[in-house]
Design brief:
The protein is α/β, with parallel strands linked by helices and about 375 residues long. About 30% of the residues lie in helices and about 20% in strands. The protein has an eight-stranded parallel sheet with strand order 4-5-6-7-8-9-10-11. Helix 3 packs parallel to helix 4. The two termini are about 25 Å apart. The relative contact order is 0.15.
């Protein structure tokens, strides 16, 4: 349990020691500061073109690295395309930014084992993303036959220690949308792990108790999961509170409260199988607020504030740094960041939108007040 001694007019410093490092908390009657190793985002959508230029600074300002999703139009299916996309991201970064994009390939039925070799040799592609065809935004070119057409590629990934990042939903119209993650675990992911136990797998943006139990049941070091801000603080009621809420619509869709609570318990327990992945997914406002709105929540500006809120409410601030900054690089076999970032407990208001010449982007918790404000240490 975290305890601080508060004295009027004085500032006390209390060290919070975790199993992997030390977080320093400063507390006063009106202010707390939390200093943690600079986090990474292990699941991020940056898009391309004008949208990329608009959003990249929100991630690069606070995160040291990010796994960049490949579901562009056309998708990033080759190493050459990934290298070119990385160059576009670096060009769009603010001056003097040290943000590092970690690239991925978009798995298709026709991906070749040789592409995995090229990806590993490139030094910039760190993983391969599995989108079941039709599962989410720009997934129409995704996989239709994982165990048939893609199995040689998966075997090659094992040989090169290349992680598979999984959008864990089946797409059959016969399966209820709220059950698609569980069915995917039962029919695809569990059999895959049994066939290839040495394949490193990240189950992305988990949403259910079933996913938590599955990840915890697997061999440590081979199966892990990213967790988003929205799936920690919102449940499916958030889609309909006061009317239809298009800016709370994402895929996988929000689930029941029992699932949200299970995910909170998992990430705040200190288990190193879970780590930060925002799944921040920007869309223009007009494409969200329309007759057939697209899926995705833009949370990059508020993500660290939301994570801090969750860990504080669970009385687990001593475990926040491992979740945000240690578990991800440890799983990927990458060094931890050495710089620090501050989380200051002071109210700040989230902008109603971010406006550009071509349109607006509405962030998560638009217009609301959050308690924790991140800044570079």
């Amino acid at each position: 349990m975290l305890r601080t001694s508060l004295f009027p007019g004085k500032l006390s410093t209390v060290p919070i020691v975790s199993s992997r490092g030390q977080i320093h908390l400063k507390a006063s009657m009106t202010k707390m500061e939390l200093s943690v190793t600079r986090p990474d985002d292990w699941h991020l959508h940056l898009r391309d073109g004008e949208l990329l230029e608009a959003v990249v600074s929100h991630s690069s300002h606070h995160f040291g690295r990010a796994i960049i999703m490949p579901n562009l139009k056309p998708p990033i299916t080759t190493t050459a395309a990934a290298v070119a996309y990385r160059c576009s991201i670096l060009k769009a970064l603010p001056a003097n930014s040290d943000f590092t994009p970690l690239m991925t390939l978009y798995l298709t039925d026709t991906t070749s084992p040789n592409e995995i070799k090229l990806a590993r040799e490139s030094g910039v592609v760190v993983a391969v993303k599995l989108y079941p065809a039709g599962a989410t935004t720009n997934s129409q070119d995704g996989v239709t036959d994982l165990f048939g057409k893609c199995f040689p590629v998966l075997e090659e990934m094992v040989r090169h220690n290349m992680p598979l990042l999984v959008h864990g939903e089946v797409t059959s119209p016969d399966v209820d949308v709220f059950d698609r993650e569980k069915v995917f675990i039962d029919t695809v992911l569990s059999p895959l792990i049994q066939k290839l136990p040495k394949l490193k797998v990240v189950m992305e943006h988990i949403t259910t108790l079933d996913a938590v139990k599955f990840v915890e049941s697997c061999d440590e070091g081979f199966v892990a999961a990213t967790v988003t801000p929205q799936h920690l603080v919102l449940n499916r009621n958030s889609l309909f509170k006061g009317g239809l809420q298009p800016h709370n619509y994402c895929l996988p869709v929000l689930k029941r409260e029992i699932h949200r609570q299970a995910i909170v318990s998992a990430v705040t327990s200190g288990c190193k199988r879970f780590f930060l992945g925002t799944d921040s997914a920007p869309h223009e406002k007009r494409k969200k607020e329309c007759s057939c709105g697209c899926a995705g929540i833009y949370n990059a500006p508020v993500a660290l504030s939301v994570y801090a809120k969750v860990f504080e409410e669970a009385d687990a601030l001593d475990k926040l740094e491992a979740f945000t900054s240690f578990n991800g690089p440890d799983f990927y076999g990458l060094p931890r960041n050495t710089s620090k970032i501050k989380l200051i407990k002071k109210p700040w208001k989230v902008p109603e939108s971010f406006s550009f010449a071509w349109g607006d982007i509405v962030p998560m918790f638009a217009g609301e007040t959050l308690d924790w404000s991140p800044s570079l240490d």
